[in-house]
Automatic annotation (TrEMBL):
Residues 303-322 are annotated as: Disordered. CDD domains: PBP2_DntR_like_1. This is LysR family transcriptional regulator. Residues 3-60 form the HTH lysR-type domain. It comes from the Bacteria. It comes from Streptomyces tsukubensis. GO terms for molecular function: DNA binding; DNA-binding transcription factor activity. Keywords: DNA-binding, Transcription, Transcription regulation.
Amino acid sequence: MQLDLNLLTALDALLEEGSVAGAAARLHVTSPAMSRTLGRIRRATGDQILVRTGRAMVPTPYALEIRAEVHGLVHQAHRLLAGERELDLTSLGRTFTVRWHDALASACGPALLAAVNRQAPGVRLRLFAESNADTPELRRGEIDLESSTAEPSAPDLRHQLVGEDHLVLAVRPGHPLTEGPLTPERYAAAGHVTVSRRGRLRDPVDDALAVLGYERQVIAAAPSTATALPLVLDTDLVVTVPQAVTGSALSGLGLRVLPLPLTMPPIPLHLVWHRRHDSDRAHAWLRAQARSALLAVFGDEHRREPVDGARPSPAGDRQESP
C-alpha cells in the first residue's frame, strides 16, 4: 500500500486552521492545490474531515477524534528528521519576525538586537508593530514571537508571563497636577491623551473613574506612546502610560512622572509563540534572548514558569495592549 505521508502535514494544517485557505497560507501553497489535497485525504480516510456549515467549515467527529494524534505524528516526524543536533549559533542563518508594541520595542529592542548580533551574527530580526486588529499571522508562521497583555485562548499557542507593569501619569515640568495633592477629581478634570492603535478615546481608566463618579476629559488619541509623549511636553495635557516600558522615554524627554490616583490592576506581559516551535532549538534560543531583554526592564522578581493549553515547552520557556 502506497501512502503519501505529506498528507499528514496537510491534514494537520487543515485541522488546526479549520479552512482550506488558512491551511494553504500556512503551507505556502495555493487554495486550489490544498482543495485537491483535501480530496485525497477524504479518499484515503473515507471521511469528509471538514464540512461546510454556512460560510465556515467545521471538522467531522472523526476529524476531532484524530486531531491530537495527527499533530503528534507530524511533531514526531519533524523531531526525527531534525535529529538532536546541537545548535551552532555562529553558523545559524535565519530571519525571525518579532511583533512587539512600540513602547516595548523601544525599551527592550536594543538589548535584544545586541544580544542576537553578538551571539549569532547570521541571524536577522524583523520587528513588526502591532496591527489594528487581531490577526492569525502567529498561527500561520508569519510571526515567530509576539507580546501580549492577555493569555492567548487558542490551545495551539504557548505563552509565558514575563512580568507586570503599572500605569503612571506623564506631564510636563510645572504642570498644575504637580502642585498639591493629586486626587481622582483633579486627574479627571485635566485634559488627557489616550494611547490607542485603534484611535479609541476611552480605555479601562475611564471605567475606573466612572465607578468613583468622575468622567475624564479626553482631548485626543495617539496611535503610539512615541507619538503621545511629545504632545504633553508644551501643554497641560496628561498621558497615562505603563511605567516600566516607558521609563527611559519619559526621562529622556524630561517629563514628570506622577502616580495614578486610582486603583488599577497591573498590566501583565506575555511572550507568545506557536507550539510548532516546541522542539525548535533556534526559536528556543530567541525566546531566551527576548526574555533576558524584557527582564532587564521588568526585573527578575517577575520571572514566571511557562504555561500553555497542553504542556510546557522543553526550552522552558491579550487585556488588549494599548
